[in-house]
Amino acid sequence: MSYNLRRRSYKNWKILSIGEAIPRAEKQKPAQEVLPDLYDVERIITKRPTQSGEKYLIKWKGYHKEESTWEPFSHVPVDLRNRFMNPPVCRERPETAALILESAIQQRLRSRNNRTIINFELDVFRYSFGETRTTLLSNSDFEKLPLSPHWYYTINGKGRGTLLSFPVKAEPRLWMKKLHVYKDGELVFFSVPVERLVITSATEGLVISSVNKQNN
Q1: Long-range contacts of the stretch 179-184 (C-beta < 8 A, 24+)
Q2: Is the pLDDT of residue 117 over 50?
C-alpha cells in the first residue's frame, strides 16, 4: 500500500505578488536527487517516544534496510498506527524466526550460557507475543511460532537430557549499527537497524520416566 508521508506545499509566488519578479543573478546549484512523493511501506520496525511525539521506524518496500527512516507520528496513517501491535505478517517470516529460535535454543541446552541472542524482527516479535518490551514467556506463549514439539528439550538414547525451564525472559532489542562506506569518491556515514531478541533462561534435568509420570 502506498502512502504519501512527505507532503509538499506549493505556492506560485508570481501570482501572489504584485508586479513582475525582480530578476536575480543565476546561481549554479548542485544537482539534487528527486525522490517520489509516494513510498510503499513494507513494515514498521518499531517506535520510540520523543519530546515532539512518537516516531516510527519505517522499512520501505524496495529499499535497503539502511534506508529505513524515523517518521513523526503525523506522517504515519492511522491504519498503520492501529496495526502496530498486530502487524500483518506473511507465513514465511514466522517460519524463518522459528527455525532460528529453535536452533539457538537447542545450542543453549547444550551449554552453560543462560543468554541466547538471535536476529529476530521486531514486528514478528509483536505479532508472536503481543509485546514491545521485556516480558516473561511460558511454553504456550510460543504457539504462534511453528516450532517443533521438542524445541525446548534435548534427550539421549538413555532417556536423559535437558529441559528449558519456564518462564523465560524475552527482551526485544534495536541496535542502530553505525557504518562508514566509500561511495562515489566520498566517505558516507549511515546507520542500519539491527533487530535482535535476547532470551534469558534456566534449565533442569530431564528423565523420560518422570515426564511419563507427569503426563499420566
Answers
A1: 179/66
A2: yes
